Structure prediction request, 82 residues.
Amino acid sequence: MSLSAEAVAAEVDRYAALPAQALAYYLGLDTMRRLRAKAERALADSFNLRRFHDAVIGAGPVTLPVWEELLESWLTRQQVAN
Prediction:
């Protein structure tokens, strides 16, 4: 995929203005992948991607540590229910 010169300039400006944004994005992504893998292992055949997604989105705009606690709590409830 190639980007126009204007799009490239906009990306450079964004990274210059918000240098930690990409790092924050990938920290969240890494945390989500880790928790999803944990849930898949723990729940095995009972793992439901839609329910996991609902828990992720349902947490709302919270800090990463709070989000992780909410998803850990969700996993515990799922384990009890199964």
Q: What stands out?
A: The CA atoms of residues 15 and 43 lie 39 Å apart. Residues 21-43 form the longest helix (23 residues). Helices lie at 5-17, 21-43, 49-58, 64-81.
